[in-house]
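User: Fold this; tokens only.

Assistant: Input:
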Amino acid sequence: MADLAESRLAPSEPLKPPASSTGVIGWLRANLFSSVWNSILTLIALYFLAVTVPKAVDWLLVDATWQAANGRECMAAAGGACWAAIGEKWRFILFGRFPYEEHWRPLIVCVVFVALFLASCDRRLWGMPLLAIWAAGLALNALLMWGGVFGMTYVDTSLWNGLPLTLILAVIGMAGAFPLAIVLALGRRSHMPAVRAVCVAYIELIRGVPLVTLLFMATVMLPLFLPPGITIDKLLRAQVAIILFAAAYLAEVIRGGLQSIPRGQYEAADALGLGYWQKTRLIILPQALTVVIPALVNTFIGTFKDTALVIIIGLFDLLMLANAAMTDPNWRGFATEAYLFVAAIYWAFCWFMSKYSQWLEADLNKGRRR
């Protein structure tokens, strides 16, 4: 009897889940073979990959030509990709008409931008240290691009091409648009009719026209309204147009975040005796921006890719230079390789922004997890 009582009181071992619901098999059943239609679609996708992936690998790597003197040698090779064209033209694609012997300057500019991105990922630097780092980095980049001091030749902005130009337009555009977007979002929710009307008019007007229109107006129409003898640099005009355009879209994203904050947060801030700007800066904005991180990053990625539109006003960005590089008679016919090279660069920057935003969102939402 004592043994029976002890066996009843002893805790039983927990039952293990079925092997078919855990591990790789469980994941496959839950995600790829959860139903008949999912199984059919999975099999179709596997067949498509089995047919296309080997051919793509052969064209990209196995049958590719890595060294050749000109395009004719690539044509006579195995028939794969001609990466020798990229090896010959990569400096022109990245840096364009910048003086060839001083390509080290835009190269350092690109490295500095990447270093600034990595520094921004460290939350311990957020605040005044990060602002100081960005100010120093942008000042160094301006010094390297313009030159004219320390033995460096002066380079006009018309010769700023390729990847440095794309990064300058995108980074400064987003950095300038973000504070303006916050002001517009707050103004659209203002209780003052005049302020709200101005902000609404600006946002709806800018969002109602494509970026191409703003670039065209800034380049063609704006000089017509300037006094004789006064000109504004074309790069500056394009930069301002990108800032104004991105700010309108970011403003609506931030306004959505502001509307998601419970009213109790405003009332609690008022109960603490905080003023409008203190309440907005310390309580409302941090929560609103955390909520809309995915939408903010989506707008940042869109702005980064929209810089390719400066082609229409005569600025040679990364995509335009890839197209121009393949007009060389010695390497004509290999535009696909050039576009893949440029696409890989765009993808790398966009992938980094996407992955960091996912990590940041998860890190900032630790207190909201259930």
